[in-house]
Structures are given as C-alpha cells and as structure tokens.
Design brief:
The chain is mainly α. The chain is 79% helix and 0% strand. The N and C termini lie far apart (48 Å). The mean pLDDT is 92.
Length: 71
C-alpha cells in the first residue's frame, strides 16, 4: 500500500512541477524571451522538453503560447 501511495503522490508532484514550469515559462515568453532562454530559466532540460510539456499542459507549442499571451 505504501508503495502505491508513494507512486501516486510522486506522479502528482511531478505534474505539479511541470505545470509550474509551464506557467512561469509562459510569462517569460510573453515578455519576449526566447524558447531556449525560457526553457533553461525555468528548469527544463532542453527546449524540446519544454515544447512537449507546453503541448501536454496547454495544448500549444511555446511559440503559439508566446503569440497568444504576448503583452
């Protein structure tokens, strides 16, 4: 039981951290930062990982998000 609960909580935590990174990344992109700069600033391993996370969380690529949320 402990193992199952731990895995469940770990998955929730990982998704939470990913969502946080995407939200912070979205703000940086809206301020005109490049995808590469945003990815490294918020903790993604690479711009490709950031792109996949953006598509999972927002359903948009980082560039689409930048255009949509530009200030």
């Amino acid at each position: 039981l402990y193992c199952c609960c731990f895995e469940f909580i770990f998955v929730i935590f990982v998704k939470f951290v990913e969502r946080l990174r995407v939200e912070r990344g979205k703000d940086l992109l809206a301020r005109g930062k490049s995808v590469k700069t945003m990815a490294t600033s918020v903790g993604f391993e690479s711009p490709a990982r950031a792109r996949r996370a953006f598509e999972r969380v927002l359903g948009l690529s980082p560039r689409e998000a930048a255009l949509l949320f530009a200030r």
